[in-house]
Amino acid sequence: MSQFSWQRIVIKVGSALIAPEGNGCSSRYLLSIAKFIIHCRMQGCQVVLVSSGSVAAGADAFDGSHQAGPALNKAMAAKGQMEMMAAWQRLFDFPIAQMLLTQGDLQDRSRYRSIKETAFELLTNNILPVVNENDAVTPDALKVGDNDNLSAMIASAINADALIICSDIDGLYDKNPRLHEDATKIQQVAAIDGSVLAMAGGPGSSVGTGGMRTKLEAAEKATAHGIRTFIVNGRSEQAMYALQQGQNPGTEFLPRAEPLQEGAHWLTHTARAQGEIVVTNGSESRLQEDGESLKHTDILDVVGDFSSGDTVLIRAKNGTKLAKATTQHSSCVLSLITRETSGDALLSLTVDKTPILSNQNIAILETS
Known about the structure:
Layout: E1 8-13, H1 15-18, H2 30-42, E2 46-51, H3 54-58, H4 70-91, E3 96-101, H5 103-107, H6 109-124, E4 128-133, H7 147-157, E5 162-167, E6 188-189, H8 194-197, H9 212-224, E7 228-233, H10 237-244, E8 251-253, H11 262-270, E9 275-279, H12 284-289, E10 299-304, E11 311-316, E12 321-327, H13 331-338, H14 345-353, E13 357-364
Parallel strand pairs: 1-2, 1-5, 2-4, 3-4, 5-7, 6-8, 9-11
Antiparallel strand pairs: 7-8, 9-10, 11-12, 12-13
Helix pairs in contact: 2-10, 7-9
């Protein structure tokens, strides 16, 4: 790789490449991707593969005459996961390993660390980790929802140098190229702002769950951690060869010059808020200077049901999102404080002895 000197990468492959007809696995588009992975490993670059496709790969084993539903999709995923792993293993002469994850795994700090430890142990032993969402058993509330965002979370967890999202389109365009002949591909994106997000269209495939919007969300997560990100056409053998040569065949998203630290990134882009603490509009400056200075008298409202140790969103009365943090008190306790009378002074004193937030577990959000 003449231009890109990567030590560790994550490559994401979607359902449209695994099972392009939505009816079982096909090696049609996987061969060139497998060659790229092999090339990277031969160059001493560690690779983690995030592979969608279990539902699409398992669809052909089920009677499609009855209406599809969550139970059928889970059954398809259970069947298709075996097919998908077998399809990848046939393309490699080295061992691969399966890692099935959920938002719940990523949400819990100790399980998140366990994911990192397992991935690094596999990589150290030259085993290719193949990551997918555990669609066979996971309820919607505990799902990441798409493997674009999952791949960015994994890339951040293992401190990857690059995230490569293989799609069925050449990259990001200023308008939908399937509808507009004059659409222009964006070669490089320095920062993902509102104008870039506006370029995202709807889902581009009938067998995948992620459209361009989720790919941009993934790029935003990854670049915030200092990870160079690409959206490339995984159907194109030339595109994969260009990456081998250190060239950009799609759209490149540049990493932030000052990446978020790991803890702040996990809170901002991986941990899902279980509730909200609404505070006075004047709390923003004190949060930025010292999160532990937030007092019970600053709380206007508590939204949702959460426990001590959960991630919460801190927002101002005017709706501005100020921070995400690990709360040191439950929603029940904080709700009681907001409704306290003079006879409840003991409860307030107890809370003041243990700050509502800890400076070790808070991420200030960027506001426009």
